[in-house]
């Protein structure tokens, strides 16, 4: 049996008492590769934010023995401000702060690793470009290079391939597969069900409540997807915690 990396026990996450994630119980095995799927507003991003400690549970528990530096997190692209005047290389080097400290000295090994990471994502030569001048796909490659440098044990990706072309998606999926091969734990919020079925052995199907959690082929059944859609149609955005669905 695999070791557990993260355990969720009756986890509810709410905003101003409106639940986004409701009574979630389950485990994420160390070294597993899990997709989080579900309709818009299902609570997928909120769950990732709770796991990294950005949101506090309203009730229930998140148990793990990880330090904050063990987590690598890729937020949704829409939430990243690219107007900040910073170069591609410096953006990637932000992934090395665990080694260097927040204001610390960047060792030459880290510079080399940053260059190697940019080569690995197909952006060799882009080091001095400002991030504001990149296409969406190029910027997503930069963020993956930063994660490569960060070398985290648990990697959480929030819609990493949304609005990204097929070739870039394939390249980035290869990186995800390598992380999995290296024994890292990867959780990714995805909307493309074909991608989930093809590349992610485990799936958590969420519609605020857990619809299914386990082997992807079992969880992504037509019946479960119908149930998730039906739940989404019934959501009452003003419902309080644990009010029964109407
Ligand atoms: N900062 C916030 N303040 C208030 N409500 C929020 C906040 N962030 C999210 N919500 C609400 O929580 C619910 C879950 O949102 P969340 O972003 O986690 O869903 P999601 O499954 O990631 O959706 P999507 O697929 O559209 O990205 C939604 O009803 C959303 O409106």
TrEMBL record:
Keywords: ATP-binding, Ion transport, Nucleotide-binding, Transport, Zinc, Zinc transport. GO terms for biological process: zinc ion transport. The keyword Hydrolase does not apply. Residues 6-233 form the ABC transporter domain. InterPro entries: AAA+_ATPase, ABC_transporter-like_ATP-bd, ABC_transporter-like_CS, Metal_Ion_Import_ABC, P-loop_NTPase. It comes from the Bacteria. It holds the Pfam family ABC_tran. GO terms for molecular function: ATP binding; ATP hydrolysis activity. Belongs to the ABC transporter superfamily. This is ABC transporter. It comes from Rhizobium altiplani.
